[in-house]
Amino acid sequence: MFKVTPQPQGAALKSLVNIYTYEAEDFEEQSVKLKKLYYKYKARVLSVDANGLGVGLIDFMTKAQIDPETGDELPPFGVEGGTAQDTIDLYKKVKGPEVEENALYLVKANAPINTEAYTYAKTQLSSGRIKMLIDESQARVKLMSTKVGQNMSPDQRADYLMPFVLTDALKAQTLNLVEENEGVNIILKQSSRSINKDKFSAFIYGLYYIKQEEDRKKRRKGFKVSDLMFFS
Questions:
Q1: Dist. CA 206–CA 213, nearest whole Å
Q2: 229 — pLDDT class (breaks 50, 70, 90)
Q3: Cα separation of 210 and 228, whole Å?
Q4: What pTM was computed for the model?
Q5: How far apart are CA 15 and CA 173, in angstroms?
Q6: Cα–Cα distance for residue pair 153/166, rounded to 1 Å
Q7: What would the pLDDT profile of 64-107 be if each residue is shown by its tens digit?
Q8: CATH of the domain at 46
Q9: d(CA 107, CA 58)
Q10: How many other C-beta atoms lie within 10 A of the C-beta of residue 33?
Q11: Is the Cβ–Cβ distance between 133 and 139 less than 8 Å?
Q12: Based on the structure, what is the number of domains in the chain?
């Protein structure tokens, strides 16, 4: 989850405010949880990997579901756009008053798109335009220095610290990647195959959407930096 805050000069500040992972769950369960996160954070859009298994998730995201915890109906999510017109056209038919319009951005990545996404992420990181959560060890020390933290159960502390744990995992995945060039494209290879790169991929695909939105708004006549506020 990114929060984007415009700055008086230069690119906006992107704050990575949370990370969630869902293991061994089917697409419908994932769809329900993603939709609930969308509403919880009042997100601008969900950037979804539309390659391979991602299409199966999109099939469920574009249909209505019932939240098993509350019994509430979660509406179909409509597609704003993306990088592959054939995939976008397939889901553009999802329209109607009950649809959450323009809630999905479909990233069907290839070597040039991955290169653009990685280059943008690298530039924004090096310029200090991306802020991440502190390390889990620091967060734990700070938490345990408070009465609230001391009174938490072990499970409550684990839930509180999970975003920091997952941010540490993202940093480890980033450091594990080795940059190679194939022509004009950058290829990232895992130094250790035992370390995944799923969180890193989600990270750069989220940033990729932010870049497209920034570029689009800059091109638009009468651009105002305040228009960039609060999309995720």
A1: 11
A2: very low
A3: 9
A4: 0.87
A5: 18
A6: 20
A7: 999 999 999 999 999 999 987 888 888 888 888 899 999 999 99
A8: 3.30.420
A9: 11
A10: 15
A11: yes
A12: 1
